[in-house]
Amino acid sequence: MGMTMAEKIIAAAAGVVSTKAGDIETVTLDRLMSNDGTTHLTIDMYNNKLKHPRIADTKKLVWIVDHNVPADSPKTAASQKKMRDFAREHGIDFYEGQGVCHQIMMENYVRPGELIFGADSHTCAYGALGAFGTGVGCTDYLYAMVTGTSWLLVPETIRFNLRGKLPKGVYARDLILTIIGKISANGANYKAMEFAGEGLHSLSIADRISICNLCVEAGAKTALMEVDEVAMDYLKEHGREPKACYQSDEDAVFAETYDIDLSTIVPIVAKPHFVDNVVPATESYGVKIDEAFLGSCNNGRIEDLRVGAAVIKGKKVAPKVRFLVVPASRAVYNQALKEGLLDIFMEAGAIVMNPNCSVCWGACQGVIGEGETLISTGTRNFKGRAGHKESFIYLASAATVTASAIAGQITTADRV
Amino acid sequence: MGKIFRFEKDVDTDQIIASQYLLFPTIDEMKTHTFESLNDTFAAEVKPGDFVVADENFGCGSSREQAASVLKALGVKAVIAKSFARIFYRNSINIGMPVIVSKELHDVVADGDEMELDLKQGIITANGKTYSCTKLPAQMQKILDQGGLIASLNKED
To answer: Is A329 on the interface with B (CB under 8 A)?
Structure first.
């Protein structure tokens, strides 16, 4: 019987010839990423709970301070100091203020065929380069850090065959919101979501990260995409080689298969308070907003900033609206500077922030108040996710978010 | 007997413990904010031995282990839901807090009802009736029996 991409990566990581959905395998991890959301707790357990504290392979660890940057309180500062000191003492690769963890991982580490644990649910983004990334809590992380291994229930796979091209003015964000709306917030729980087909080749790496990143909002354990020329070019540009490039076998068994014609996708908005609560953007036209956010591991790349800048060039942010623009990494920030994009945003009246999780994390920058409405390229629109528990978040593409910032109400880029 | 705190479907981990508390130095400092957005008296009212009962997809969203940890720190004996999001499920077992799948319980109990759980037999008693719950996979039952993943690692070490 053939294997899926997910089964092949797990089999290789487990050192077995084959495996199948439902089996449990002990795997060796290729990489272990952790950020300031939980690492202080991991360190406390390392210091106080382990009989024999040790790190299996320090070279595999990457620690990134990206959630509350710069620190917003003495408590945050203390937790981040603990992380910084431990990383220095043990020689762990450490980043701070350089961007959102997943963007740093994509730019510097992820290779096709790898199995990566990240102490962050959006680790599934790494599937954009054909790597099996999955989110774990800090106890799983600590176990893997100490032993170099973990156990995994091999997931079933839902396969999405893509064909055609997205229409002008429609983006990867619209596609993945459409898919999540179709299969629901737990439609892929415990499963892998795999994307393939000729339609994939028309999508940039930025598009692919945006798609894979959001798969956890359907409950997915991981997201995976076949490695093609576009992915190989990205790797070459960043000086990396694949570990292994996998495709699902012809006779692999999928839990479900969807065929999606990209040309049928339209601009989408996810309404409060669930990511699967999606409607065509036209149905949310006119909803007044107080804040707009362009950034995050989902849509803070240079491609997204170019889209936003093209929409807002020569126009102004609506009075009384805050428009926060947050490049996803230092590399993105520098590139946007070079291209004059940050000038365009500043002249339009936007607030340009340092690379970090920002509004998407909802605890540090751009927090919204009681009764306020945010339109965001962030990952989630859960109740209170961006601030007060009685506030409202709509999710949309970079183009729709920027257009809404100009209009002061939800609208699409063709109307501003 | 423990009291039931009842929740609906798709309760995400941001609702269990919001982002603004996650970088607090310890779980004990976070736990008073548990479920703040959905039930702001929960943390004050819940007593050791009480239960959280929910509909489908409990614990979806962020991988923050703090969501499971604050419930355990407040003394929640087990979470019983129709289904769980995978990271929360795994985190709960890893810290030694039972998570139990029951497709029936949520529909037949009210907030504030009392229930009893026989973890070994997988039997819940509530309002004079008994309900059987789904067994954990052997791998996870073993971790839970040993008191969580770190206790299990220390035992092997």
So the answer is: no
> Which residues in chain B are closer than 8 Å to A123, comparing Cβ atoms?
63
Closest CA to B17 of B4, B30, B29: B30
Q: Which residue has the tokens 């009681």?
A: A370
Beta-carbon contacts of A181 under 8 Å, excluding residues fewer than 6 positions away, are A268, A270, A276, A277, A278
**pLDDT tens digits along B35-52:** 999 999 999 999 999 999
Task: Using a cut of 0.95, tell me whether the model's pTM lies above it.
Answer: yes
Report all structural domains of chain A as residue ranges with CATH numbers, in order of start.
Answer: 5-262 (3.30.499.10), 268-415 (3.30.499.10)
8 Å CB contact between B114 and B2: yes
Q: Which of residues 128-167 of A touch B (CB under 8 A)?
A: 135-140, 142-143, 146-147, 151, 153
ipTM of the modeled complex = 0.96
Outline where A217-340 has alpha helix (H). 229-237, 296-299, 302-312, 330-338
Sort out which chain B residues have CB atoms less than 8 A from A190's CB and list them: 86
Q: Which domains does chain B show, CATH number per domain?
A: 2-156 (3.20.19.10)
> Distance between CA A354 and CA A332 in Å, rounded?
11
